[in-house]
Fold this protein.
Amino acid sequence: MRTFVVRYMASMAMLTWASLPMAADWRGQLSDGTQIEVDSQTHRAWQLDHGQRRPLWDGVHRLADGSVVIVREGRAVPQAGMLDAWSRAETPKTGSRLADCERLLDHACGKDGRCVRAEPCRAARQLGAMADEAETAEAADELAAQCREALGSDFFTPCD
């Protein structure tokens, strides 16, 4: 039963994640003048051109400042500027209900993010994003409980 609950939770996280608004925490300008943005949670890379937002194609993209952004499978490979921007993001306080989801992220993704491409990490990030976007305290509490439960699940293996 527990395995079913965790799989169901991960599936629901993936479905709900698709409907969440994209929060761009890092922006840059390509050498052609168009803007790009990279979401801190998913690392999805987007190109903004003439009011349109399109996924940035896989490859190496030169920025106006001469640096590059590498995109693989639609996700940007984090570079120093992105990591700096994301590290400045406000983190939940220790006593908050989101601390449970932060523990799950550390567990599944590694404190340094070295398992960021692993499926357990992806599901943990999606569950964390749902908790961040919860519209009511009850919903946030329920998601925090799911994060706590997920810590004991075989699916959310620790990042080694």
Notes: Residues 23 and 72 are 20 Å apart (CA to CA). Residues 26-89 form one domain.
